[in-house]
Amino acid sequence: MRLPARFVPLTAVTTATSALLTGCFSAAGPEEAGSEGKRIRVAMMQPPRSGLSPLSDDAFKLSRWSTAETLVKLDAEGDARPALATEWKRSGKTWTFTIREGVTFHDGTKLTAAAVVNSLTEAATASPKPRILDGVDLKAKADGDTVTVTTAVEDPLVPQRLSSPQLSILAAKAYEGKTVNPLGAGTGPFELTEVNGTASAALDRYDDYWGGKAKAPGIDVKYVPDGTARAASLRSGEADIVEAVPVSQAAVLDQDLITEVPMPRTNTLYLNTEKGVFKDASLRAAAREAVDAESIVEGVYEGRADVAEGLLGPALPWAAELRSPLKRAEAGDPDGEAITIGTFTDRAELPEVAATLQQQLQKAGFKVKLDVREYANIESDALAGEFDAFILSRATVLDSGDPAAYLYSDFASDGSFNISQLADKTVDTAIDQASDTAAGDARRQAVIEAEAAVLTTDAAVPMLHERVIQGDAAGVVDAAHDPRERELVTADTYVK
Predict the structure, then answer these.
(1) What are the b/e assignments for 450-461, b being 16+ CB within 10 Å?
(2) Residue range 461-488: average pLDDT?
(3) Residue 195: strand pairing partners
(4) Do 459 and 442 contact (CB within 8 A), yes or no?
(5) How far apart (Å, rounded) are the C-alpha atoms in residues 82 and 74?
(6) Which of 39, 58, 437, 487 makes an SS bond possible with 218, Cβ 3.0 to 4.6 Å?
(7) A Pfam family matched by this chain, by name (predicted)?
(8) Which residues pair with 96 in a beta bridge?
């Protein structure tokens, strides 16, 4: 039995091999003169893919380092809260945001409504657009100390969209040329001062930060894609904060240094409803009944995950309270039907999940073949419906902090990530209803009704909800433990 790690409930979230690592960090870590403390050494999983452009997924690195900020932040419930905007109001298709006074960019220029409009316009007119604006026609205009944001159709989620790190507000100098360069262009407590390609980055404290001086003098980042090496950096004392500790390595670390946080990411078996064996609803039901998620959680994830009760997990604490029992189809007899299950190697646990599922489905009467590749080499086949089933670890709140976008993308008839090839009018209606409902309790109820509509089809069999496993050295104080992985080092984080 594994020793218990720290487990952070959602209400508390965001408040508070050695040879492979040779040369990653200095043994003791650089210190500032005087009593200001140590710089924070961070080992991150993935190197930047787009030169740290905020218009890409690299934006989440800028957010986790507290260098780039957005107009709005999200609380634990996914509701919008002030950041660079202090307040907002809606009138039909138009939202008006009041811009915070007294904010400067790291290059010394002032945050103005015009600067905000410049950043939002660059994002809205980019090709391709940031994912958060996929299908959204957004225009921004400055008016004194306010910014009006208008969409082509009424969108109740505009504030949540503007919380996405991909819509960070940067100084005008960041947008010179064809790329977006965040170096010295943010508004956060730390200034990005050095970028060394896919090897490392450095940030220094920005003493004129509008929210107060950060407690740490700076951050030194190393990219360590190998999970064993990242874990070893914590064990050896070469890193202070280690993100995305693999399940296989968590057990061999000092459990006092490990924190697990419910994550809005579901490991799901998508079943092809358009063609092949699983076009038959009774055989989808047979597959659903054959899946033993508890044994996958214990055997593959060593208990460091949560058995799924639905598509939305404990990272959305309101979901379980709103669910009602479902009426499901009766299971048919697989009778030796042959199926191919695809998955990818990029997430270390998925090939083992696939092997376990293969055994479970074969026991139920299916003949199962596995096709396991790198994600870049398998995504197009999955989206084209080339598999009978596909195992995917999928974020369920995407960039807006709201699950309706995920439900639309994955299960609407014209969804862009519809691996199940699902085309169901009841599902479409339920998802549209959720998407059109204003943020708050009514929207959450509509989301759960859309989830129920999807689950009734057995187009997707949710198996488990993953956890963020983060390593913090003994001297680290107030590192963020964020299920959305938007925060890591904040102004309050320091090393003793």
Answers:
(1) bbbbbbbbbbbb
(2) 94
(3) 201
(4) no
(5) 9
(6) 39
(7) SBP_bac_5
(8) 89, 148
88 backbone dihedrals φ, ψ, rounded to 5°: -155, 160
In this prediction, residue 20 carries a pLDDT of: 36
**Of 47, 495, 418, 428, nearest in space to 230 by CA:** 47
DSSP 362-412: HHHT-EEEEEEE-GGGTHHHHHTT-SSEEEEEEESSTTTT-HHHHHHHHHS
The Cα-based distances of 333 to 285, 363, 435 in angstroms read 10, 12, 37
Instruction: Please answer whether residues 447 and 404 qualify as being in contact, where contact means their C-beta atoms are separated by less than 8 angstroms.
Output: yes
The residue ranges of every structural domain in the chain are 6-240+473-495, 263-467
Residue 230: C-alpha distances to residues 4, 381, 471 (Å): 20, 32, 9
pLDDT tens readout for residues 325-375: 999 999 999 999 999 999 999 888 999 999 999 999 999 999 999 999 999
pLDDT (0 to 100) of residue 405: 85
- 335 Rama class: left (phi>0) / alpha (psi -120 to 50) / beta: left
C-alpha span between 85 and 104 (Å, rounded): 14
Identify residue 236 by its one-letter amino acid code: S
How far is Cα 191 from Cα 180, in angstroms, rounded to an integer?
16
User: What residue has token string 């205009």?
Assistant: 141
DSSP string, 128-179: SPPGGGTT--EEEEEETTEEEEEESS--TTHHHHTTSGGG-B--GGGGSSSS
Mean pLDDT within 64-92: 95
Q: Is the pLDDT of residue 416 over 50?
A: yes
Enter the pTM of the model.
0.80
259, 481 in Cβ contact below 8 A?
yes
Asked if the model's pLDDT at residue 36 lies above 80, the reply is no
- Interaxial angle between packed helices 281-290 and 350-364, expressed in degrees from 0 to 180 and rounded to the nearest 10: 110
pLDDT, residue 132, reads: 85
**Of 93 and 127, which is predicted with more confidence?**
93
Nearest one of 324, 360, 403 to 74, comparing CA atoms: 403
Write down the pLDDT at residue 2. 44
CATH superfamily of 263-467: Dipeptide-binding Protein; Domain 3 (3.10.105.10)
- Cα separation, 426 vs 431, in Å, equals 9
Give φ, ψ of 394 to 5 degrees.
Answer: -125, 125
Q: What is the CATH number of domain 6-240+473-495?
A: 3.40.190.10
